[in-house]
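Saturday, quiet lab. Running sequence design on the structure tokens for the scaffold JK sent over.
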């Protein structure tokens, strides 16, 4: 069974006909070709597929596309302003918080939603905010440092 939906992805309105059992992750990657949102566990346990939906970080593998109808969705591709990276992306690079890069889009999107709600986080706030994002390469220290630096930079 198919249903017509409308999503606003990174500020652009998209009208799609989707099967009712498809996830938002599948539609983002396969229909809209926005492959920055990563597919890993398909169970909501890793955070690699995190996008921001109406201001809230969500695991797009757990959201049916039809349930996102009418929602505003932000993906990693929507963060840069032209050729200028978002401050969170710049801080991840500056602090060396990127290794293999597979978890990075989800970490960055989780961080953006978090910082927009908590402008002055401490280390424990950050660690709590990203506990749903799994990284195989780092010990998280550089990621936490990048998020704290991002929050300060965005606040100042």
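Result came back. Writing it out in full:
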């Amino acid at each position: 069974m198919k249903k017509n939906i409308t999503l606003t992805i990174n500020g652009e309105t998209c009208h799609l006909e989707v099967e009712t059992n498809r996830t938002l992750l599948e539609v983002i990657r396969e229909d809209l070709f926005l492959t920055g949102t990563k597919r890993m566990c398909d169970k909501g346990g890793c955070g690699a597929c995190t996008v921001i939906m109406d201001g809230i970080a969500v695991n797009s593998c757990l959201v049916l596309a039809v349930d996102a109808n009418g929602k505003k969705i932000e993906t990693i591709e929507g963060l840069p302003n032209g050729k200028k990276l978002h401050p969170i992306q710049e801080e991840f690079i500056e602090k060396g918080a990127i290794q293999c890069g597979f978890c990075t889009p989800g970490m960055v999107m989780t961080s953006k939603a978090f910082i927009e709600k908590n402008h002055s986080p401490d280390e424990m706030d950050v660690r709590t905010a990203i506990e749903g994002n799994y990284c195989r390469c780092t010990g998280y220290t550089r990621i936490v440092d990048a998020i704290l630096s991002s929050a300060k930079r965005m606040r100042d």
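Notes for JK: The CA atoms of residues 6 and 79 lie 21 Å apart. The beta strands are 2-9, 12-19, 50-53, 56-59, 72-74. Ask whether to fix the surface positions before the next round.
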